[in-house]
């Protein structure tokens, strides 16, 4: 009897083992199928996004996008301002995380939120970026589509309730899919996702990203046709001594790229100081400034595909555009892109980086061509210059090399590319440049090279320190009753709600003391008469540095934590004591 029982147990164990194996295999197959779905959806999203931008431009200007946005119509100087205002309103009311370049926000979602983003970002980022770019804002489409693709991957992963580790991978796969569809460079998109977004390599993550990138690229081919992102003639080295010229170009590019990254950050910090101006108005002001610049240099408006194609063509750059114009385009693009994105416009920095690199390279190519007529045309130096600026600004040298190779599909340009990018990155390290993504994320407590910053105020989120079981009071309660509650409680302030449970204010002993000094009847006076209505708010995913800044700006010692989708729904409360406990968990004081 015991022998039969043992055999039965062993058989059940074997069946269970095989069943678990099937589950594991099924999970892997499911993830690969999801990666395919993410790639397909990202490709379709890129197609829709591109046509949204074209549609906005057609509505505003009555024609397809061209190099001359204004076409002699001075009133179009106001178009970027209108686009900034409309995009800013969308971001402000529906998804504040859609503000910015796109890539830093995608990295932040992967690092700090486990790849869990809100599905609405797909719509808000698409429309806001279409308004910004379609009306002439100086920004690119690649950053937004990377964030849109990441949001697509995250939304699909959340829909199927995948584990947090796989959710991050699906988000990265979606970002790679979006980039592959726009750039028509699936290999570079995969490397970008691994090099910049995930910053780690596993076989399964690589497989999922590859699946998504390939499917998105095929989808783009079907919907948009077999169009090259930037058509270029074949470039190569006419003489081995040209490597010396590329060496000099690499040295020149590093400080220029660093200046561009710093200008972007400085512009954002400058507009953040406009505390009394709403964000949509800031974006409108930025758009107006860009429109004025575009009145004199219209070629800096929009993404800049036509201008870059011109300097890369065999007939462009050295023939049609002089050195003074190329120099003005470099400076104008840096200023206009910094103003567009720093003021709150929605768009990417990849295409502006390529634009600046192309103009810089063409300018340099024309200059050296006058000294050495037998060398490669200026377009070759423009192509290499694109890779140089992009590699430093994005801190993605491998992606830059592979992307340029995929764009040209010509092996002859690889040697000067690899050589110049290496020189530029070494030079960038010497001057301390880490790229715009690292600079933006460091402000939010994410360190790309070493994980999160150890300072809790830079790395801990509001939901990690907030009090979840918050004691609240109703707005119809009398001040006298509130005084009794404060005497009996260990708290010195309370959030105030209305009859529907919505947050309507905050009240502390300070307001009670002020009411007592004014001599009112505390037995009849209601809390709603003395409470503070302009309650400082925070969201669960905000890092403590942002919470502290809002506390200082509102001159209060407590801040309400609310749902991102419903700012009136209270989910927690943070006081200065909670922030202190992030440094010293055993530290407790009267709240």
Helix content: 55-70%
Any low-confidence stretches, pLDDT <50, length ≥5?
1-25, 64-68, 315-319, 585-591
CATH class of the largest domain: Mainly Alpha
Strand content: 5-15%
Oligomer: single chain
Radius of gyration over all CA atoms, rounded: 28 Å
- Measured between the Cα atoms of the first and last residue, the distance is 67 Å
What is the number of independent domains? 3
At the fourth level of CATH, the homologous superfamily of the largest domain is: Clc chloride channel
- Main sheet strand line-up: 3-4-5
CATH architecture of the largest domain: Orthogonal Bundle
Report the average pLDDT across residues.
81
What topology does this entry show?
Layout: H1 2-61, H2 79-94, H3 103-112, H4 120-134, H5 142-159, H6 164-183, H7 186-198, H8 203-224, H9 242-272, H10 279-296, H11 305-312, H12 323-342, H13 350-371, H14 378-393, H15 397-408, H16 414-430, H17 436-443, E1 446-447, E2 451-452, H18 456-459, H19 462-465, E3 473-474, H20 479-488, E4 493-497, E5 503-508, H21 509-517, H22 527-530, E6 537-538, H23 544-554, E7 558-563, E8 566-575, H24 576-583
Parallel strand pairs: 3-4, 6-7
Antiparallel strand pairs: 1-2, 4-5, 7-8
Q: Care to describe what's here?
A:
It is a single chain. With 591 residues, this protein is mainly α. The protein folds into three domains: 25-224, Clc chloride channel, CATH 1.10.3080; 242-452, Clc chloride channel (Orthogonal Bundle); 458-583, CBS-domain (Roll). Helix content is 64%, strand content 6%. A three-stranded mixed beta sheet has the order 3-4-5. It has a three-stranded mixed beta sheet with strand order 6-7-8. A two-stranded antiparallel sheet has the order 1-2. α2 runs antiparallel to α4 (120-134), α9 (242-272) packs across α14 and α14 packs across α16 (414-430). It is elongated. Mean pLDDT is 81; it is low at 1-25, 64-68, 315-319 and 585-591.
């Amino acid at each position: 009897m015991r022998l039969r029982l043992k055999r039965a147990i062993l058989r059940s164990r074997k069946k269970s083992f095989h069943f678990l194996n099937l589950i594991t295999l099924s999970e892997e197959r499911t993830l690969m199928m999801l990666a395919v779905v993410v790639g397909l959806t990202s490709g379709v999203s890129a197609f829709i996004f591109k046509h949204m931008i074209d549609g906005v431009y057609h509505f505003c200007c009555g024609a397809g996008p061209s190099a001359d946005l204004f076409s002699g119509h001075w009133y179009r100087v106001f178009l970027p301002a209108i686009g900034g205002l409309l995009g800013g309103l969308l971001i402000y009311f529906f998804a504040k995380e859609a503000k910015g370049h796109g890539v830093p926000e995608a990295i932040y979602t992967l690092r700090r939120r486990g790849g869990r983003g809100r599905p609405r970002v797909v719509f808000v980022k698409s429309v806001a970026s279409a308004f910004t770019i379609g009306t002439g804002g100086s920004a690119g489409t690649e950053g937004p589509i990377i964030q849109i693709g990441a949001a697509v991957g995250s939304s699909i992963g959340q829909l199927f309730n995948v584990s947090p580790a796989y959710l991050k991978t699906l988000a990265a796969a979606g970002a790679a899919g979006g980039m592959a569809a726009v750039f028509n460079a699936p290999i570079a998109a995969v490397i970008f996702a691994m090099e910049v977004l995930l910053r780690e390599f596993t076989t399964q993550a690589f497989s999922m990203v590859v699946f998504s990138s390939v499917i998105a690229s095929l989808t783009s081919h079907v919907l948009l046709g077999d169009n090259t992102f930037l058509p270029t003639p074949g470039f190569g080295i006419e003489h081995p001594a040209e490597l010396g010229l590329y060496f000099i170009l690499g040295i020149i590019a590093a400080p220029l790229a660093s200046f561009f990254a710093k200008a972007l950050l400085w512009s954002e910090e400058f507009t953040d100081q406009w505390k009394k101006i709403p964000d949509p108005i800031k974006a409108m002001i930025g758009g107006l400034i860009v429109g004025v610049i575009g009145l004199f240099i219209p070629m800096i408006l929009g993404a800049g595909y036509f201008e870059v194609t011109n300097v890369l063509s065999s007939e462009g750059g050295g023939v049609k555009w002089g050195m003074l114009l190329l120099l003005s385009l470099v400076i104008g693009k840096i200023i206009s892109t910094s103003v567009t994105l720093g003021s709150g416009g929605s768009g990417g920095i990849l295409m502006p980086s390529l634009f600046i690199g192309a103009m810089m390279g063409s300018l340099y190519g024309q200059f050296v061509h006058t000294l050495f007529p037998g060398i490669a045309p200026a377009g070759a130096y423009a192509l290499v210059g694109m890779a140089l600026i992009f590699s430093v600004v994005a801190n993605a040298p491998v992606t830059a090399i592979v992307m340029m190779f995929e764009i040209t599909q010509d092996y002859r340009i690889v040697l000067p590319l690899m050589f110049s990018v290496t020189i530029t990155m070494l030079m960038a390290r010497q001057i301390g440049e880490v790229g715009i993504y690292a600079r933006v994320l460091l402000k939010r407590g994410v360190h790309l090279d070493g994980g999160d910053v150890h300072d809790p105020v830079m790395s801990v989120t509001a939901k990690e320190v907030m009090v979840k079981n918050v004691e609240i009071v109703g707005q119809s309660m009398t001040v006298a009753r509130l005084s009794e509650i404060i005497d009996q409680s260990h708290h010195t302030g309370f959030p105030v709600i209305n009859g529907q449970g919505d947050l309507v204010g905050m009240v502390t002993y300070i307001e009670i003391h002020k009411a007592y000094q004014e001599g009112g009847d505390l037995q009849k006076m209601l809390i709603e008469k003395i409470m503070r209505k302009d309650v400082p708010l925070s969201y669960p995913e905000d890092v403590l540095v942002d919470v502290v800044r809002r506390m200082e700006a509102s001159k209060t010692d407590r801040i309400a934590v609310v749902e991102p989708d419903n700012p009136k729904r209270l989910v927690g409360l943070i006081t200065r004591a909670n922030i202190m406990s992030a440094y010293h968990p055993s530290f407790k004081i009267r709240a």
